[in-house]
Design brief:
Distance between the termini: 45 Å
CATH class of the domain at 122-267: Alpha Beta
CATH topology of the domain at 122-267: FAD/NAD(P)-binding domain
Largest sheet: 6 strands, mixed
Oligomer: single chain
Number of strands: 25
Radius of gyration: 23 Å
Number of helices: 11
CATH architecture of the domain at 122-267: 3-Layer(bba) Sandwich
Structural class: alpha/beta
Length: 430
């Protein structure tokens, strides 16, 4: 079975993944020189940095998503999108094998990003929530609201503690942003709307295995983030590892137990890509080793970019950080080099330009490590707002998000806390 892509005399570039890497590669390629086929298991691009705001009821999911077919159709006629799951690639045959059929290629670019890394702990994978997609964010939103409603209707003190303790594991950007958003909801919204529930019983824990938060940022950013979250009421535990979770309680240390139905796992990610790549080319973190052109060894027409790529060098012995900027810059390099291949010009090597790292903790509270300056507080928060608006796909999305942020800032509230799709846990008997 084929994917019904028209035959062409142009070189066919197949791109797996409609994230930052895939879309920026399409933008860079000269459309008249190639036939371009984008494959993704979803029909939309997700702006992942704002997933936590969907989960906290600050934004609707469609404001951070953009239809891939609409994006493709605006770029030219010899461009195609196929909604399917890539099961395996065959570099020797130059074939992509999906659940809907096969497709041959001249150039293949894998831009599939990352997935949650549970470090082999099955109980956590089974019982916790992750935040890597829009369905995940909607599950978390529903669980939060459902458990508040359930807590109002139980007289069992132990059950109420399990319902009202929210534990976030992982002190990276996603973890601190979730913790900050939850603390602000408790302070500004839940105390008013759930006036018949003792909000002092609602606890937000942030557990981090290392000795500081935001380990990939400066020490000043880490210290400020800790201070901001502590003032907001978060209960922070550093040097704390979670090794088991049965869906009802977490044991930390020798004698401390946190009863909770709500474990949100943001403690790590690993590369995600289809089968078919030689095991010798797979590095730590489940990332594919690539050279300075993002090519996989022994396959000059096979490229991996973004989170799934490990470009090992003396300068970067562990590969580049798993950030959107890396994926964007790799995509632009591969696109430029493929254009040059048509024009018989020499290729450029990848050199990452660090444009900075940002994280927001709440209203007027953010940290920004930029190449020339490190700032915290309100100014960093404005930088965070501007950068995230600029990188959203689609003018309407930018406008909707900006209006939601403005209204939320003025009113300290949002009307989006709706249980549209109730979430049921694996161990939930209710």
């Amino acid at each position: 079975m084929k994917l019904n892509i028209p035959a062409t005399e142009k070189p066919r570039v197949v791109i797996i993944g409609g994230g930052f890497g895939g879309l920026n590669l399409i933008q860079k390629l000269k459309k008249k020189k190639f036939q371009i086929v984008l494959i993704d298991r979803h029909n939309y691009h997700t702006f992942q940095p704002l997933l936590y705001q969907v989960a906290m009821g600050g934004l609707e999911p469609d404001s951070i998503a953009y239809p891939l077919r609409k994006y493709i159709s605006s770029k030219g006629k010899d461009m195609f999108f196929r909604l399917c799951e890539v099961e395996k690639i065959s570099p020797e045959e130059q074939l992509v094998k999906t659940d809907k059929g096969e497709l041959d290629y001249d150039f293949l670019v894998i831009a599939t990003g990352s997935r949650t890394n549970y470090f082999g702990i099955e109980s956590i994978q089974k019982n916790s929530l992750e935040l890597k997609s829009i369905p995940h964010s909607l599950d978390l939103r529903s669980l939060l609201l459902q458990n508040l409603e359930r807590a109002l209707m139980t007289d069992d003190k132990d059950e109420r503690a399990q319902l009202l303790n929210f534990v976030i594991v992982g002190g990276g950007p996603t973890g601190v942003e979730l913790a900050g958003a939850l603390c602000e909801l408790k302070k500004f919204v839940f105390r008013r709307e759930y006036h018949d529930l003792d909000m002092d019983e609602l606890n937000i824990y942030l557990l981090e295995g290392l000795d500081r938060l935001l380990n990939g940022m400066s020490e000043k950013a880490s210290e400020k983030t800790y201070s901001y979250l502590e003032k907001l009421g978060a209960r922070i535990r550093l040097k704390t590892m979670v090794e088991e979770y049965d869906g009802r309680k977490i044991e930390i240390g020798e004698d401390e137990v946190i009863p909770t139905y709500n474990l949100i796992w943001t403690a790590g990610v690993e590369g995600a890509f289809p089968g078919g790549i030689d095991k010798d080319n797979i590095d730590k973190g489940n990332r594919v080793r690539v050279n300075e052109y993002c090519q996989v060894k022994d396959h000059d027409n096979l490229f991996v970019i973004g989170d799934a790529a490990a470009m090992i060098s003396e300068e970067n012995p562990k590969g580049h950080p798993m950030l959107a900027q890396v994926a964007i810059q790799m995509a632009k390099l591969v696109g430029a080099n493929l254009n040059k291949s048509i024009e018989a010009k020499s290729w450029e090597r990848f050199k990452y330009k660090n444009k900075g790292v940002l994280a927001t903790i709440g209203r007027n509270k953010a940290v920004a490590d930029l190449p020339s300056i490190k700032v915290q507080g309100t100014f960093a928060w404005y930088i965070w707002l501007f950068v995230h608006l600029m990188f959203l796909v689609g003018f309407q999305n930018k406008l909707v998000v900006m209006m939601n942020w403005f209204i939320g800032y003025i009113r300290y509230n949002s009307p989006l806390r709706l249980i549209i799709r109730p979430f049921k846990r694996n161990n939930d008997d209710s």
